[in-house]
Amino acid sequence: MITREEQRDAQAYAAEQLAAAGIVLTDADRGAIEVADFGLSRLREQGLMLLVYVNTDRYCAKELVLYPGQECPEHRHPPFDGTPGKEETFRCRWGLVTLRVDGREIVLHPGEQFTIPPDTLHSFRAGPDGAVVSEFSSTSRDELDVFTDPNVRRGTVVG
Amino acid sequence: MITREEQRDAQAYAAEQLAAAGIVLTDADRGAIEVADFGLSRLREQGLMLLVYVNTDRYCAKELVLYPGQECPEHRHPPFDGTPGKEETFRCRWGLVTLRVDGREIVLHPGEQFTIPPDTLHSFRAGPDGAVVSEFSSTSRDELDVFTDPNVRRGTVVG
């Protein structure tokens, strides 16, 4: 659970970081920034801010924004609807992000990218200045994600 | 046909415009910028610069860069391999781009986006300051594109 204030602060932070990365947002974009605490109630440590540009039944594109040191907990994208599950490419835009993919560690600086195969365990954590990361992928179905930590809930309660 | 100098100038221009849009490139990215004149030998009027980030058998992401007033000629992405053809979302990052989609005109400023259905005729032209446009899509198979102008050739001869 996060408070309304945490949500508002995180949205404002994400909008600022996207602007720092040169990414222009509309007012509608700013209002659509999702704040996810993964049900762990420690947003600054475990969580993520997301802006989905498009998510069709064929492809998806998002911006991900992380607080300094914030981590998106380990998970995988399982097969669904006869597809092998979500395949995704992370391209770092600002700051630094460290991916852990099947136990391997990959550090991405701005301009560097890495593609994670479907149904493969991964997590990622921002460096000391936070991170802005573009995600290009096949269709996104966040509600199907399988997390290693059984306490994770993909939906975030705000109240 | 374009000269080596036209190619080099266009790559340098594209790298500068991407930097102006806040997009960080690696040296490998800069070397991979494609310059397309569509076989019309009037690059500044009819053409496009492209940087492909990723193109898997499921999704694709590119940056498109246009000279001031430069147009990508009308074409469509036909069905292939049992798919309905490429579906693509254009998001303007810098400058201004005018899309023509099935006769309809859509002007995109930075932060604005539009999704073009598969197999639908479209062209696009940059405004007076040029344009940087992110393209998110299903798999890209440029060689299958069907152009309205029979003189168009998708491959560009440099010499």
Model description:
Two copies of one chain form a homodimer. The first copy, chain A, is mainly beta and 159 residues long. Helix content of chain A is 14%, strand content 41%. The first copy, chain A, is built from two helices and nine strands. Chain A has helices at residues 4-20, 27-31; strands at 34-36, 48-55, 60-66, 71-76, 88-101, 104-108, 113-116, 122-137, 146-147. In chain A, strands 1, 2, 3, 4, 5, 6, 7, 8 and 9 form a nine-stranded antiparallel beta sheet that branches. At the A-B interface, strand 5 and strand 8 of A face strand 5 and strand 8 of B.
Helix content of chain A: 10-25%
Count of DSSP H/I helices of chain A: 2
Strand content of chain A: 35-45%
Number of strands of chain A: 9
Q: Return the string of H and E elements of chain A.
A: HHEEEEEEEEE
Radius of gyration of chain A: 15 Å
Distance between the termini of chain A: 7 Å
Rough outline of chain A:
globular
- Oligomeric state of the chains? homodimer
- Give start-end ranges of low-pLDDT stretches of chain A: none
- Largest sheet entry of chain A: 9 strands, antiparallel
Estimate the mean pLDDT confidence of chain A: 97
Structural class of chain A: mainly beta
Largest interface, chains and sizes: A-B, 28 and 28 residues
